[in-house]
Design a protein that fits this description.
This protein has eight helices and 16 strands. The protein has helices at about 90-100, 195-205, 225-235, 250-255, 270-280, 295-300, 305-315, 335-349; strands at about 5-10, 20-25, 30-35, 40-45, 50-55, 60-65, 75-80, 85-90, 105, 120-125, 130-135, 145-150, 155-160, 165, 170-175, 175-185. The strands form two sheets. Strands 1-2-3-4-5-6-7-8-10-16-12-13 form a twelve-stranded mixed beta sheet, with no helix packed on it. The radius of gyration is 25 Å and the shape is elongated.
Length: about 350
């Protein structure tokens, strides 16, 4: 061939199978065998020695086996209705290196479309006692696309910290977990054309925020301190339902974890207050940014919020924020809070 590869076609006279083998100068090759009954078996071997073998059956079902050079293995079976089940095994050496470098491991499974029910379930063996950051390939993920843990008995747990990437969805997983990807989008009539539509879709799909009603989000209403404490408690995995007041459990969580004093829960939360709560939730990390470029805002920051506001600038939480989020004393709207929280979750991973 013009690219330097060679292609050989052979037919087995006894079985009727046709095998087409293409070899490239770098040592990689592809072998495609078409059986008389229509079964197609293709095997791709990369120059690093990794292989991908796919068997496509006449009824539309298929099985793909991946053996990567780093010893990561995966087996994906797709039935004729399109439902996929995958098993992925990550060697300890791979997971340990990923944890040391804080990088995600791309799972070698078939890229799947997303529906409201989820089309694929993946069992991940991580060989680690600690959660491992992984990336699952997804076809055209949307803000409402989330990772879901499937527990024994059928219970589902939305991974609230799952974030979108160019290739799919990024999240942390424990050893032996069974996960799926699904569209958990919520529809709000007042957010459909709002400037913060994607952020609203992000936080509502992860069930961090709820609508003011079943069909409205109230994006331009101000966020209260109680709302923010409740949202952060949900992000931490707490069930906030119940209590004499709707925010009692979220407020108790915030006080217990040093995120807030719990004072004036029904009062509007300001930008510097929200940033400070996020800063405390993150463990009060060192501040890498500065408000020096915004002298008017810098002088108006309360003493308690100086480090948290600098941290927010360095973390990119306040960059290009719409609607005047840079005003430290300004009340934060629900839409602005959604944007800040989405950025916070994305940067946390």
């Amino acid at each position: 061939n013009p690219d330097g590869s060679t292609t050989t076609t052979r037919k087995n006279q006894a079985t009727g199978a046709v095998t087409i083998t293409t070899k490239w100068p770098d040592g990689s090759q592809t072998v495609v065998e078409t059986a008389k009954d229509g079964t197609i078996t293709s095997t791709e071997k990369a120059k690093d020695g990794s292989t991908v073998k796919t068997v496509q059956n006449p009824d539309g079902s298929s099985k793909t086996t991946v053996n990567r050079a780093d010893k990561v293995t995966a087996e994906t079976t797709i039935d004729r209705r399109g439902k996929a089940v995958a098993q992925v095994k990550l060697p300890a050496q791979v997971t340990q290196e990923a944890q040391r470098s804080n990088k995600a491991i791309l799972l070698p499974v078939t890229e799947m479309p997303v529906t409201s029910g989820g089309l694929i379930s993946v069992t991940v063996q991580t060989s680690s006692k600690q959660p491992v950051k992984v990336e699952l390939p997804v076809l055209q993920p949307e803000p409402g696309t989330v990772a879901v843990i499937l527990h024994p008995g059928g219970a589902e747990e939305i991974v609230k910290t799952s974030v979108l990437t160019q290739q799919g969805v990024l999240f942390q997983v424990s050893d032996g977990a069974v996960v799926t990807i699904k569209d958990n989008s919520k529809y709000f009539s007042d957010a459909n054309s709002h400037w913060a539509k994607d952020a609203i879709g992000f936080v509502s799909a992860r069930e961090l925020f709820q609508g003011q009603t079943a069909s409205t989000f109230a994006p331009n209403d101000n966020m209260s301190r109680a709302m923010l404490m409740t949202v952060l408690a949900r992000l931490d995995g707490m069930d906030t339902a119940g209590g004499q007041n709707w925010y009692d459990k979220g407020m108790a969580w915030a006080v217990e974890h040093g995120v807030s004093s719990g004072d004036e829960p029904e009062r509007d939360v300001t930008c510097e207050q929200m940033v400070t709560m996020l800063y405390r939730y993150a463990g009060s990390p060192s501040a890498a940014g500065s408000l020096a470029g915004f002298p008017t805002d810098a002088v108006s920051v309360s003493d308690y919020a100086v480090f948290s506001m600098d941290w927010a600038m360095g973390s990119g939480l306040l960059a290009d924020a719409d609607g005047g989020l840079m005003g430290p004393k300004d009340s934060v709207t629900r839409a602005q809070a959604a944007v800040l929280l989405m950025r916070f979750v994305e940067r946390a991973l």
